[in-house]
Amino acid sequence: MRTNSTSFALTVGMALIVLMLGFLGLSATGLVGFSADEDTQTEQPADKGSSIAPKDSTVVLASAKAKKLLTPSEEAAVVAGDALFKANCTQCHAVHEKVVGPALAGITERRPASWIVSWVHNPAKVIANGDAYAVKLFDDYGKQQMPSFSQLSEKDIKAIITWVESQEEEGVMIDDRGLYAEIHD
Hints:
Order of helices and strands: HHEEHHHHHHE
Strand order of the largest sheet: 2-1-3
CATH topology of the domain at 72-165: Cytochrome Bc1 Complex, Chain D, domain 2
Largest sheet: 3 strands, antiparallel
CATH architecture of the domain at 72-165: Orthogonal Bundle
Helix content: 40-55%
CATH class of the domain at 72-165: Mainly Alpha
Number of helices: 8
CATH superfamily of the domain at 72-165: Cytochrome c-like domain
Distance between the termini: 55 Å
Strand content: under 5%
Number of strands: 3
């Protein structure tokens, strides 16, 4: 009898160890996990100064500094910008990595939106006018010129910019409709 109960205890113990190692492996890869913060966030009400995401259908951009609630028009711009970026820009650009053209993260820190609109509409004209930044981009990318996207309106280009800015953030928490997943570095 003693052998059977010892054997049973060892089998159960080994099974628990295997489960714990499996959970540890999944947790290390980020596929599964939990934290005490998650439980407290769902129980506390969100207020204006809170860093907790509201439970309604509001889009929240989360950065290390603060969370920014988007207006419905900004939310629409993010959604439209996502579609426009995928349809027109992904062949040559990514937000955080150089593809054929430069990474777009931080573009509004390097150039104002008005310059970006002019550049997207007609990069050859901006280069021909001698704009130092445009000429440097042209030279740095082997004199390979970006095609003109004159079919995009200023509103379309600004929507793409808004989407790029939303992707620059450390994390993006989007409403219960699941438009975007949370982004981690």
